[in-house]
């Protein structure tokens, strides 16, 4: 493996800035890695090699004039294939949009461009971002780089795989019910779901307007902080995007300390389904945080008995609204499971949908008053059990498939309903596969999550681990 591809995003950007190596060398190292592993892992749907090499040469020319385009100058990234770039095909992981060419560019891509990043290609994903495992009826599943027979997590499957396997230095995903955190957890990397409205969604494929978020998947917490700092902030083209100021996220990761940080461990809901072996790993991760000076306090989370249903009512109703015309005109172009998940939304009464929306502010207020007055962040699993195999979780639209999928998102989907930010972090390995946990914060307090995550990374060195099957 090229030593360049082992670098973190921050290290790669600094190396280009210092003149230690060129952007072209970074891109070529990534392309060589993709040539070796890309097909085996099935994480790319489009590699823009020549275009990216030209961009790298342009970045190097700017650098030769002692100018820097931004904090991501000359670093190749790739993204879930649902972010529009004018004039470039965007499949959204589907057959229906296999030839779709948008005429607009997503705000997040524009901001990455302005930050100096290079766009190396498009990454595999669950069809229309509807699936927590990474299965895709049209493009096949992206394969977990730790063990290719196991799921990569979804729906940002290719993003998790490509970053974990050191094919790119970072990637964007979307998170409507866990779709950044699940692949980050499955693939042993860092994934952030920001506060709802923290990042503009203009030019990104929609799934559920009330729940969709865009966030980074990276190898280190500092990488995550840098990407968030580039993409966050108000956007006039997305009227829902927040005007709350953007913090200096990366500064919080430089010399992190969490002495006195109050970490809430839920006594109900989040740990209800955790298997004994995963529970033991979570306990050790929590003890590590305690050893760094954090104070663990038990908390009881209110209003969670129906929170999964409320989230589902919103997501299926809004997805059905978006997909209604295609479901009527092209029903056979959907994968069976995706179709079976969206169709029930067509029959949800407006009163139930609106009721789920109206209940949301009250649920958030109760959680803030009853939980976050006692703690600064909440500690919870991402997966309640070890990642399943691709074969065992390939349930399609068979009877009971809803329960299988709901079990996978049991710990992640409530966070979307509550609009809170959450950071997925790798724990120890369990039988060769990563375990993980998430830190869930108060609205717009990503900086505390990143500080705590950086302290945990500094203590455990999780970002130094490279998937065994990709260490070639």
Could you explain how this protein is built, in words?
This protein is of the alpha/beta class and 472 residues long. The chain has a single domain, classed as Amidase signature (AS) domain (Amidase signature (AS) enzymes), CATH 3.90.1300. 37% of the residues lie in helices and 12% in strands. An 8-stranded mixed beta sheet has the order 4-6-5-10-11-9-7-8, sandwiched between helices. It has a 3-stranded mixed beta sheet with strand order 1-3-2, with helices on both faces. Strand 10 and strand 11 form a beta hairpin. Helix 2 runs antiparallel to helix 3, helix 5 runs parallel beside helix 6 and helix 9 packs antiparallel against helix 11.
List strands and helices in order, with pairings.
Layout: H1 9-18, H2 23-41, E1 44-47, H3 49-64, E2 76-80, H4 107-114, E3 118-123, H5 157-164, E4 171-174, H6 181-187, E5 190-193, E6 214-218, H7 221-231, E7 262-266, H8 276-291, E8 295-299, H9 307-329, H10 336-342, H11 350-370, E9 377-380, H12 401-408, H13 413-418, E10 422-430, E11 433-440, H14 446-460
Parallel strand pairs: 2-3, 7-8, 7-9
Antiparallel strand pairs: 1-3, 4-6, 5-6, 5-10, 9-11, 10-11
Beta-sheet strand percentage?
5-15%
Please tell me what the overall shape is.
globular
- Can you say what the CATH homologous superfamily is? Amidase signature (AS) domain
Low-confidence stretches: none
* Residue share in helix: 25-40%
CATH class: Alpha Beta
Q: What letter string, H or E per element, gives the SSE order?
A: HHEHEHEHEHEEHEHEHHHEHHEEH
Main sheet characteristics: 8 strands, mixed
Please state how the strands of the largest beta sheet are arranged side by side.
4-6-5-10-11-9-7-8
Number of helices: 14
Radius of gyration: 21 Å
What multimeric state do the chains show?
single chain
**Would you count the extended β strands for me?**
11
Task: Return the structural class.
Answer: alpha/beta
Distance, first to last CA: 5 Å
Name given to the CATH architecture: Alpha-Beta Complex
CATH topology: Amidase signature (AS) enzymes
Average pLDDT reading: 97
Q: How many domains comprise the coordinates?
A: 1
């Amino acid at each position: 493996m090229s030593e360049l591809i082992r670098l973190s995003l921050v290290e790669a950007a600094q190396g280009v800035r210092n003149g230690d190596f060129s952007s072209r060398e970074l891109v070529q190292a990534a392309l060589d890695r993709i040539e070796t592993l890309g097909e085996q892992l099935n994480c790319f749907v489009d590699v823009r090699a020549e275009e990216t090499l030209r961009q790298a040469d342009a970045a190097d020319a700017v650098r030769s004039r002692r100018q820097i385009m931004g904090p991501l100058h000359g670093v190749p990234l790739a993204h879930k294939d649902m972010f529009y770039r004018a004039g470039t095909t965007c499949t959204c992981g589907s057959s229906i949009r296999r030839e779709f060419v948008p005429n607009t560019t997503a705000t997040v891509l524009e901001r990455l461009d302005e930050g100096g990043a290079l766009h190396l290609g498009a990454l595999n994903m669950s069809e229309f971002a509807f699936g927590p495992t990474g299965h895709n009826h049209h493009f096949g599943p992206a394969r977990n780089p730790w063990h290719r027979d196991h799921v990569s997590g979804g729906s940002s499957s290719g993003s998790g795989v490509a970053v974990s396997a050191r094919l790119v230095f970072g990637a964007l995903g979307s998170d409507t019910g866990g779709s950044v955190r699940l692949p980050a957890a499955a693939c042993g990397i860092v994934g952030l779901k920001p506060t709802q409205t923290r990042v503009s969604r203009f030019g990104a494929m929609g799934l559920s307007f009330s729940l969709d978020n865009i966030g980074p998947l990276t190898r280190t917490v500092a990488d995550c902080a840098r990407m968030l700092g580039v993409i966050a902030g108000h956007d006039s083209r997305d009227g829902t995007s927040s005007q709350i100021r953007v913090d200096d996220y990366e500064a919080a990761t430089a010399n992190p300390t969490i002495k006195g940080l109050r970490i809430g461990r839920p006594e109900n809901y989040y740990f209800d389904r955790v298997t004994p072996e995963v529970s033991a790993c979570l306990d050790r991760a929590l003890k590590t945080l305690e050893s760094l000076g954090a104070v663990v306090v038990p908390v009881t989370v209110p209003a969670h008995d129906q929170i999964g249903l409320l989230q589902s009512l919103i997501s299926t109703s809004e997805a059905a609204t978006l997909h209604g015309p295609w479901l009527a005109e092209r029903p056979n172009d959907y994968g069976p499971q995706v179709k079976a998940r969206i169709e029930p939304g067509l029959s949800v009464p407006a009163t139930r949908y609106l009721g789920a929306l109206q209940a949301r502010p009250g649920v958030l207020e109760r959680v803030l008053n009853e939980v976050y007055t006692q703690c600064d962040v909440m500690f919870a699993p991402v997966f309640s059990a070890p990642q399943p195999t691709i074969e065992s979780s390939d349930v399609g639209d068979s009877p009971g498939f809803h329960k299988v999928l709901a079990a996978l998102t049991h710990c992640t989907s409530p966070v979307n309903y509550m609009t809170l930010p959450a950071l997925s972090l790798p724990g120890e390995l369990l039988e060769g596969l990563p375990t993980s946990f998430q830190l869930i914060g108060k609205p717009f307090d990503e900086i505390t999550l990143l500080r705590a995550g950086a302290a945990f990374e500094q203590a455990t060195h999780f970002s130094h681990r490279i998937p065994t099957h990709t260490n070639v």
